[in-house]
Every structure is written in C-alpha cells, then in structure tokens.
Write a structure and sequence with these properties.
single chain, mainly beta
Length: 115
C-alpha cells in the first residue's frame, strides 16, 4: 500500500506560478513511476506529466514549456512546477504512483487560475 499526500494548490492569477508537491509512503519510492493528473468540472481526468524511475519525463501538449515535473528520491517527493498558468489549467490535480501495474492516488488538490 502506497499513501500519497498532495500540497501546494490554491488560487493564482493568470500568468502566475504554483508548485505542487506529493509525498509518498514506502521505502521503494525510487522505482515508482510518478505522475500528475488533473480533472476539470465536466471533463475526464487527464495525465498532465509523468516521470519514470530513471527520470524520463512526459507532458501533455497543453503544458509543454510551462510545467516541469521532478522528483527527489531522498525525500520520497514528486513536484510539479507550474508557470504561466492559464484559466484552462483550473482543475483538481491528483498525484499518481504506478507500482507493479497498480495505481495509487492522492486525495487531490484544487488549483484555480482566475483574476
């Protein structure tokens, strides 16, 4: 069982920045593939960014060049740095860990981009 706890969401103006953090339990964090998903009202949950155990990253096209995913294995933590935020980035953001084909989810953190 892996427990994930997100933090760092909030209200920000368009063009602003936020950094999300996700802390994971367990002693094998370094081998997890970690990801950030988001779900806006009335829309399906989508993968925003992922990072493999080896550090390879992937991004959805809409956030490329604005968001950066990173991980600190010593702290069992994955981050999502979000810059140049747009109103369409408004959603609940969920941390995900893939462990031997099993998905674990955090409780979600709200990000609202509005003036």
């Amino acid at each position: 069982q892996v427990q994930l706890v997100e933090s760092g969401g909030g209200l920000v103006q368009p063009g602003g920045s936020l950094r999300l953090s996700c802390s994971a339990s367990g002693t094998a964090f370094s081998i997890y593939t970690m990801g950030w998903y988001r779900q806006a009202p009335g829309k399906q949950r989508e993968l925003v960014a992922s990072i493999s155990s080896g550090g390879s990253t992937k991004y959805v096209d809409s956030v490329k060049g604005r968001f950066t995913i990173s991980r600190d294995n010593a702290k069992n933590t994955v981050y999502l740095q979000m810059n140049s935020l747009k109103p369409e980035d408004t959603a609940v953001y969920y941390c995900n860990a893939k462990v031997v084909q099993i998905d674990y989810w955090g409780q979600g953190t709200q990000v609202t981009v509005s003036s």
